[in-house]
Design a protein that fits this description.
Number of strands: 11
Structural class: alpha/beta
Largest sheet: 5 strands, parallel
Order of helices and strands: HHEHEHEHEHEHHHHEHEEHHEHEEH
Distance between the termini: 38 Å
Number of helices: 15
Shape: elongated
Length: 318
Amino acid sequence: MDAQIIDLGKQTIEEEIRALNRLEESLDENFEKAVKLILDTQGKVIITGMGKSGLIGKKIAATLSSTGTPAFFLHPAEALHGDLGMVEKKDLIIAISNSGETPELLAIIPILKRWGNKIIAITNKKDSSLTKYADVSLFLNVDKEACPLNLAPTSSSTATLVLGDALAVALLKLRNFTPENFAMFHPGGSLGKKLMKVADIMRRDLPIVYEDTPLKEAVIVMSEKGLGSTLVLDKNNNLTGIITDGDLRRFINKGKSIDNSLSKDAMTKNPKTASSDWLVLQALELMERHNITVLPVVEDQKPVGIIHIHDILKSGVI
C-alpha cells in the first residue's frame, strides 16, 4: 500500500472539511433572509450556473424538489437562446458563481432583475457583479481549493453543495415536510417504497365467514379467495378469529371432522392484526416475528383489509 497516495486523499478531505468549517462560521442573517424569500415565493425556484456550479445547481434543484420546494435547473447559455421563456415573474432565481463574474450569468441576471424576479446569489466574492443584482447574497467563504493548483473547483463546489443542502433542510422543516410527503414524491424509489403504507397494498375483497358458519363453507371461501385463509367474524361483524391452511391441518391432525364442525371450532382466536396506516415494514416485522403469512387489517375491531406476505414481496418494499 502506497502511504503517500492515502495521505493525498486525506489531505484533500481535510482541506474540504476546513472549507465547510469556514462556511459554517460565515452563515449569517442572509441565510435566514434567503430561506424566508424562498418560503414566500409563489412560483418555482430556478437554479442557474455554469460548469461545475451548474452541476451542483442541478443537484440542489433536485433536492429542493424532492423535499417540498418545486425547483428546476436552467442552463444560462440555453437561457440566452430561448429558455428564458421558462421563467415566470413569480419565480425566484438562485444564481451560482464562485467568482460572481460568470459572463453567461451576467447576461441573463439583469434581464431577470428587470422582470421583477427575486434573486439569491451564491458566490465566493462579496463585491462581485453578481451580488450587485442580488436581493440576498450567500457567501461561501472559501479561501483555498483542495486542488493543489488552487484552480479546480473542489472546496468551493463542496461548500456550494452543502449550502444547498442547508437551504433544503431548513425549508423542509419549516414546511413541516413529512415522511408521507417524501413517499408521495418518490413512488418509484426504494426510499419511497420503504414509507409505503399498509393501505396501499392491502386487499379489500375479503374472505369472510362467521363463527357459526359450517367449517365446510369456510374451506370453500378460502379456496375462492386464494389467500389460504378466511377471517371469522361475530354477529356484530367484529373480527374474532382467522382460519388458515395451517389451522385446518392442525384441526384434522387432532382427529376432528370438518363435516360436523363450525368455523369457530377451527379458528385461531384473537389473531395478530395491523392498522391501515401502518408502514408496510411494520406489518412485515410483525409477520416475521410471529411466523405468519397473512395479516388482517382492522379498524375498530372490524376488518377493512388483509395482506399476504406475497403482497409485500410484490410491492418492492424488500
